[in-house]
Amino acid sequence: MSDPDSPASNPLSARPAWEVDFPYDRVEAQHVSRREFAKFLVVVSGGLTAGSGWVAVKDSVLPEAPRVTDVRLCSLSEIPGNGMKAFALPGSGEPAILIRLGDGALRAYEQKCTHLSCAVFYDALSSRIECPCHRGAFDPATGAVLAGPPPRPLRSYPVEVRGDDVWLVADRPEGQKASS
Ligand code: FES
After folding, report:
1. Distance 108 CA to ligand 1 centre (A)
2. What distances in angstroms separate CA 89 from CA 44, 56, 72, 153, one per listed residue?
3. Counting CB atoms within 10 angstroms of each CB, which of 4, 123, 136, 140 has the fewest?
4. Residue 177 located in a structural domain
5. Beta bridge partners of 110
6. Is the entire prediction scored with pTM above 0.70?
7. Is the CB of 118 under 6 A from ligand 1?
């Protein structure tokens, strides 16, 4: 059974039957009027204004997110000299590494390579933080790039020794490095 709206069922016209009964100008139908375009602009700019206003109100009225407190990572005996211990950053759960350097100093870094985010590890033999993906290497004392394509140093986190424990210290002013 043929479709009465198809051009094949209407030999007098290449248009469907409904279009013959209700003709319209295709070009006109696709035309966006100035009024419609102006409406679109008003809606988009109104949305942007409302979004910016919400951010401003939220920052000034709503309380800040709770500050992260210091977190005990492990006891000193759990991390060998010239060794590494992996841990998850409190809050975000991002992987990080705690390194005890040969001289006993402690450093903590995000475990994500600054090149393409591969997991880095401390290599006790070379005494470097290595990235296995593209042979990137970092200085374990500073996080600075020593080799390979990483564009930036590793992100570091301040740590402190309190008694026999190693603590990750929150909200320390920038510029202070990890303690030994
Ligand atoms: S991801 Fe680390 S060197 Fe490329």
Report:
1. 19
2. 39, 29, 11, 18
3. 4
4. no
5. 96
6. no
7. yes
